[in-house]
Amino acid sequence: MLRYLAKRGITYVFMIFLTTSAGYFLAVSSLKPALLEQERIPRPTPEQVANSMRLKGLDPDLSPWERYVEWLTAIVTRWDWGRSPNGAYINAEFGDRVWISTRLFLASIILTLVIGVALGVYSAARQYKFQDRAITSYSYLAYIVPAPIAYFLVQLGAININETVGERIFFVTGISTPGIEPGWAQFVDMLAHYAVPTVAITLVGWGSYQIAQRQYLLDNVNADFVRTARAKGLTRNQAISRHALRVSFIPVAQSIAFTIPAIFAGGFFAEKIFAWPGVGSWSIDAISLQDVNAATATLAYGSVIFALGAILADFATTLVDPRVRVQ
Amino acid sequence: MSSEIAAGHAEQPQSTVERLHVAGLHAPTDAVLSVRDLNVRFNTENGVVHAVRGVDFDLLPGKTLGIVGESGSGKSVTSLAIMGLLPSTAEISGSVRLKGKELLGLSDKAMCEYRGNELAMVFQDPLSSLTPVYTVGTQIVEALTIHNPTMSRQAKEARAVELLAMVGIPSPKDRLKAFPHEFSGGMRQRVMIAIAIANNPRVLIADEPTTALDVTIQAQVLEVLHTAQEETGAAVVMITHDLGVVAGMADDIMVMYAGKPVETGAVDDIYYNPRMPYTMGLLGAVPRVDVAEKSSLVPIEGMPPNLIHTPTGCSFAPRCPLATDACLDGEPVLAAVPGSALHRAACIKSGSLGSDVDVHDVFSAPPVAVSRFDAIPRAERSTVLQLKDVRKHFPLTKGALLKRRIGTVKAVDGVSFDIREGECFSIVGESGSGKTTTLLEIMEFHKDQDGEVTIGGISNKQAADARTKSAMRREMQMVFQDPTGALDPRFTVYEVLAEPLQNAGMDKQAIRTRIMELMKLVGLQPDHVNRFPNQFSGGQRQRVGIARALAVNPKLVVLDEPVSALDVSVQAGVINLLDKLRAELGLSYLLVAHDLSVVRHISNRVAVMYLGKIVEIGEVDRVFDNPRHPYTRALLSAIPVPDPQVEKTRERIILRGDLPSPLDAPKGCNFATRCPVFAALPPAKQEKCLTLEPPLEPVAPSAAAQALAAQPLPALDQRFACFFPDGELDEDMLVVHESSDHHAP
Questions:
Q1: Residue A221 sits at the chain B interface (C-beta within 8 Å)
Q2: At a CB cut-off of 8 Å and minimum separation 6, what does B657 contact?
Q3: B142: CB partners within 8 A, 6+ apart
Q4: Spatial distance between the Cα atoms of B121 and B140, rounded to a whole number of angstroms
Q5: Which of A142, A231, B192, B676 is the most exposed place for a label (fewest CB within 10 A)?
Q6: A224, A228, A243: which to substitute to probe chain B, counting the most B Cβ within 10 Å?
Q7: What is the pLDDT of residue B2?
């Protein structure tokens, strides 16, 4: 197991290095932060711009290769991912943003998985009955509707509730109210901010898990081994829950394992619409703000998350399926 | 007292004496399972399918009932209805009583008390019948837990070990922790049997338990079932399409057709004195492995009826050669055959049929086809295919980036044989013996192959360019195992047959004429050329496959399990067709088949393969009547014969274990690990088997024959690879079933 992990780890470190380096070259040759600086009022002289960039380690006069070597040396020797054109340190901002993304998505993804898998099992057990048709139709709808529209709808709903009650119960944007005293009041404030995005992301998210779990379970409900289990003296429902469920969970577990690390990577639309400045919105902003270091850092981070997901998926499979052995 | 199939219909004409006799011996309280007027209907999109129509039987403790029928005859549905495992959409009526308690109409929950406890079942496909994610031990223990909630964990584990040992799984204690995928098919079926007998059931239903297994493994599993029955004293319902499998096991037989029992009786009555044309046809349709005399098989024309429409007359009448108008007037009831109260047949002519009626006359079996080559001695006929020392080794590697070779799988290891004009040559062996790889190597026909393949005088070593290859393809064509998979579903039969002809560069008119010719040749109606494959039955599809192979007039046809996917009655028709074509067109066949009865029926010469090597080769009658290699002997003794007397008295060699992985092939004789002769040899002689590889040597004519002849006799056409062909067999591997537990009729 350890050997396997080491082997996979080395492969992924190599791949992450390649993607990140390629990303850096792409960013450094196409993003020109100096141009944005020149649009300031009063307009700074080119010398001033170049000077300020040089101070932040973003010297536009150096060749891409020289900048790459400088950037890489800083990471390898000091674990310093550089600075943004506005002077912020990537390392510091990164920690904040990952934490924000995590807080935004953690609860909703757990809810998504639990509700999705549970509804999948429930609807598979009642195939073609009213409950199954209602749940599965909803899931397909959630699949089709673009996420931003669904988020807006939930926001509108929350605003509606606020208006009906005549008091602001839910906050539809933002992380917390500034200046609130710690304690109970802060906790209530947090819940009020947390509820809308969590509900919105969950409502949109569970559909795919419900559809997958329902399908995989239905594939196994009439399997020969379920018949064997019934022939032993289990009722149909017992046989399904003890035998078919475990087998049908194998592919679902794999996709779940892949999803979990994605919690930390955040999502662009949700973060923008609910105004939680996490990693997802940062990565897009970095491009519009011509921020070479931030863009590359988020890319590297995405690769790490992907690699972790792949390894976790392998582990999840070996955990639930004895036929697969890690070598 | 040999039968427990008792009166089903009160209105049956029976003498008072007979009725009393039956009533006295078969008081309903005796029967552990009684089924009365069982009917099963399924609602489908096309209408109501009446899958089982009035099945009656009584099963006495410790007895075995064989239910025989083709696919779609309702035998499996009957068993699932008894177990209460049919989908809830099925409408079931009638009565199923287990020890006097009615089972039909019980809820799923109430049935659970009986299922797996007093009523157990073994299913057909052992590969998919065990849950892949639980250990074998867990699955056996589960069966114990359900019905014995108070049993302690140690006791359950001990019982599981005992069960595994009973079904013959080596080192059962360690194997409890193994997962199903770590077992071979035969081993998994043993586990299934262990689960079924865990709670000492009164009734054990086995639904085609050996159909998916090799013959040697089939013999092992049947033996285990036999042991299981002896240990538990359970009554067994054995469901099969193979009349050979039940001949030795069953006390009674019920033959089903179109959802209805058409003949029931003691096993000897059914096999030696069938009174229903369908039973007679089934018996005549199976080739016998123990009979050398060649007679054509009995084909039953047509297809079983569609069970959506209620039959107005005898359901077999459309296929029955004896049918008259009277047969179409109402469905005949299952009536006692004159002279025997327990033997019943659903045929208005059962009185005039019997043991003295030859089935070949009834079904007008075609005469045995004689090829013009049969009269010419083999040595004078030209060779159409020759293999010289063909090898196919697969390297087994480990590691992802740097591959290390850790071994070699010798799938085919030095195979040589030749096929002459007008001859059928067969390769037999268990799965994994290298039969199919040999075929693939012939089809590959590449000059870099290890060994020489010569087809119609063209060698793969000469110049295997595209033109030689296409010349070779015209000499040799192939017919595949699964006729459904081998035909493009979007091609009409015309397009299927035209394709090879277009490749050969024929013009449109000639193609049309040739296709009509081919359709007639294989016994299909020429006006069906515009149909798609799914509009044909399995047998007809295989005929299309044969027509396609014959389109370019090949000399040699390679047949890869051509009839194994077909029902018995349909199979007979295809075998007869192959026989006829060989004679009429002077074809040669290379046949690969696992069914040795079919091989014996159709072949002239045969090769027995074991782990990539030919262990015995020669003229089919010589090899089958006088097998020299212990493996051939074991293989032949494992094949069940549809003859109860023969089955009950003959001795069987039960090989231990499965075919070893070709990776662990021993240095000396490949077969030593399973060989019954080797096991009985003194260690000094065993050494020879383990270190030296036995060469393929001809059988010498017997000393007596040598002495009588004036000049030295030519060597016989039989060669085998064994040092001690006359060695004694290990007694542990020999099984003879005493007929004492069966009563003479």
A1: no
A2: B170, B673, B674
A3: A229, A232, A242, B134
A4: 14
A5: A142
A6: A228
A7: 42
Which amino acid type is present at position A69?
V
Tell me the C-alpha to C-alpha distance, in Å, between residue B185 and each of A308, B209, B214, B668, B739. 38, 11, 9, 27, 30
B125 chain-A contacts, CB cut-off 8 A: 224
**Residue numbers of A between 78 and 137 with CB closer than 8 Å to B:** none
Region A123-129: mean pLDDT is 89
Q: What does pTM read for this prediction?
A: 0.82
Lowest mean pLDDT among A118-127, A260-269, B408-417: A260-269
Q: How far is A15 from chain B (nearest CA, A)?
A: 15
* Residue of A1, A27, A8, A18 whose CA lies nearest to A291: A27
Collapsed DSSP state (helix, strand, coil) of residue B703: helix
Task: Give the residue from B80, B112, B211 with the most A CB atoms within 10 Å of its CB, the best one to mutate.
Answer: B112
> Model confidence at B708, in pLDDT bands (50, 70, 90)?
low
Predicted ipTM > 0.85: no
Tell which B residues from 390 to 409 touch A, by Cβ distance under 8 Å: 400
**Do A228 and B192 count as a contact with CB atoms less than 8 A apart?**
yes
Instruction: Please provide the size of chain A in residues.
Output: 327
Distance CA B304, CA B301 (A): 10
Q: Across-strand partners of B588?
A: B556
Write the pLDDT tens digit of every residue in B233-277: 899 999 998 888 889 889 999 999 999 999 999 999 899 888 889
Q: Which residue has the higher pLDDT, B178 or A35?
A: B178
Look at residue B464 in the predicted model and tell me its pLDDT.
Answer: 61
Residues of B in contact with A247 (CB under 8 A): 131-133
Q: Quick: pLDDT tens for B481-528.
A: 888 888 999 999 999 999 999 988 889 999 999 999 999 999 888 888
Give every CB contact of residue B523 below 8 A, 6+ residues apart in sequence. B543, B573, B577
What CA–CA distance (Å, rounded) separates B229 from A21?
Answer: 71
Q: CB A233 to CB B179 under 8 A?
A: no
Give the chain B residue whose CA is nearest to the CA of A222.
B87
pLDDT of residue B744: 36
